[in-house]
Amino acid sequence: MRNNGKGQTNNKSRNSRQATSYIRVLHASPGAPAVDVYADGTLLVSDLAFKEQSMYVRVPSGSYNVTVYPTGQTTDAVIDTTVEIPENAAFNAVAVGTLPDLSLMTIQEPNMPPETDEACVRFVHISPDAPNVDIRLEDGTNVFTDIGYKEESDYVCVDEGTYTFNVNPAGTDTTVLTVPDVSLDAKTYYTIYAVGLVDGTPELEALLITEPREED
User: Fold this and answer.
1) Going by DSSP bridges, is the β-strand pair 133-137/119-125 parallel, antiparallel, or unpaired?
2) Between 172 and 212, the higher pLDDT residue
3) pLDDT at 15
């Protein structure tokens, strides 16, 4: 997983309002080109490719018209939607789906570490052609069950350590994706995103993203 550092911070049209929230963008639309992301007509993130995630961008809370275009274009948006950002929040805005049916999925992220000395992990299903899935440990223990497309699980907290997760179609013992040697640190939140395609390219894979944002 790469954080490409492509966040823009020169939102001059909003500088009269206090910046109290954070948003970053993940490109998870298989087959879609690199994109530019605008908020109320101001460039937020540029040239973001599939599986890339931007840095956090500080934004004022409020309602934003978010438009997504193939990089270098400003007409015929592939996504045009409204995003509500509450105060003192952190969000991941995830471009999902396949052309021409793309959408923006907003996922709130914690802005403080877990209170316990554990690692907390959740799963987000954004593979457009994958069925509902269960996520199991190597010993067969179900961690998450029956997660459908564009659904996110609750967090499950575990001891710090290294884990292997197997992704199976719900209710089966057939593993379609293995996520090996995932190192989970105490007092940290993680999200595992299932991206790509079961039947086609780019192939199904997992992205592990660490939360919350680092203080600046």
Assistant:
1) unpaired
2) 172
3) 42
* Residue 108, both tokens: 């709130």
Alpha-carbon distance 140 to 153, whole Å?
A: 18
CATH class as words, domain 2-109:
mainly beta
Q: For 97-148, what is each residue's pLDDT tens digit? A: 999 999 999 999 998 889 889 999 999 999 999 999 999 999 999 999 999 9
d(CA 17, CA 26): 25
Q: Do the domains 2-109 and 119-211 sit in the same CATH topology, yes or no?
A: yes
Residue-averaged pLDDT of the chain: 91
Q: How do the domains of the chain map onto residue ranges?
A: 2-109, 119-211
How would residue 18 be classed by pLDDT, with cut points 50, 70 and 90? low
Rounded to 5 degrees, φ, ψ at 108 are -75, 140
pLDDT at residue 11 above 50? no
Assess contact for 166 and 138: CB atoms under 8 A. Answer: yes
CA distance 157 to 69: 38
> Measuring CA to CA, which residue among 96, 79, 93 is closest to residue 28?
96
In this structure, CATH architecture of domain 119-211: Sandwich (2.60)
List the one residue out of 151, 26, 41, 43 whose CA is nearest residue 95: 26
The DSSP secondary structure of 31-55, one letter per residue, reads T---EEEEETTEEEEEEEPTTEEPP
> What count of other Cβ atoms lies within 10 Å of the Cβ of residue 45?
25
Report the C-alpha gap between 35 and 98 in whole angstroms. 14
